[in-house]
């Protein structure tokens, strides 16, 4: 089974509207073509992309996911909005994380222990003082000033 490309996942903080539009544009479909493919009304696609529809019914979710070539779970995650890490834990790959960016959704999965891109064990605390990372908005540990990203 092929894992969908990372770009096919809803990103942290991405709205359903933005996600659907991004997938549609990736597939080079017009709103009309997507509507046809998903067997829904073109106006419904417009409403979703304008953020007027934030909850999809089951049938729409299924056909729209198929048309966008993503699992229906991705649409569900986007519907819920910003996927929050379980228990507020921020896990990240000290190799792949770019300071100033949000953690990748795949790292935040509580079942994930290793980076899906490079295999490095994920890290959820300061490498120096072991204080847990509250937010990746900070590039450095607020307690001891150590940079969160592993030195290259
Ligand atoms: Zn990595
Ligand atoms: Zn520290």
UniProtKB/TrEMBL annotation:
Protein's name according to its UniProt entry: Gll2177 protein
InterPro entries associated with the record: Cro/C1-type_HTH (IPR001387), DZR (IPR025874), Lambda_DNA-bd_dom_sf (IPR010982)
Alphabetical list of CDD domains matching this protein: HTH_XRE
Pfam families linked: DZR (PF12773), HTH_3 (PF01381)
Gene Ontology MF annotations: DNA binding
Organism: Gloeobacter violaceus (strain ATCC 29082 / PCC 7421)
Stored SUPFAM superfamilies: lambda repressor-like DNA-binding domains
Stretches assigned to the HTH cro/C1-type domain: 20-75
Gene3D superfamilies per UniProt: lambda repressor-like DNA-binding domains
């Amino acid at each position: 089974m092929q894992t969908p490309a990372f770009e096919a996942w809803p990103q942290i903080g991405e709205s359903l509207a933005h996600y659907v539009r991004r997938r549609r544009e990736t597939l080079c479909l017009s709103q009309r073509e997507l509507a046809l493919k998903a067997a829904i009304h073109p106006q419904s696609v417009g409403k979703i992309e304008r953020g007027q529809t934030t909850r999809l019914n089951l049938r729409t979710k299924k056909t729209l996911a198929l048309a966008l070539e993503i699992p229906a779970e991705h649409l569900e995650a986007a519907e819920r909005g910003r996927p929050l890490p379980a228990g507020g834990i921020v896990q990240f790959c000290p190799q792949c994380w770019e300071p100033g960016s949000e953690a990748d959704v795949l790292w935040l999965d509580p079942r994930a222990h290793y980076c899906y891109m490079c295999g490095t064990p994920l890290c959820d605390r300061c490498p120096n003082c072991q204080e847990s990372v509250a937010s990746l908005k900070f590039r450095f540990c607020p307690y001891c000033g150590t940079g969160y990203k592993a030195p290259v």
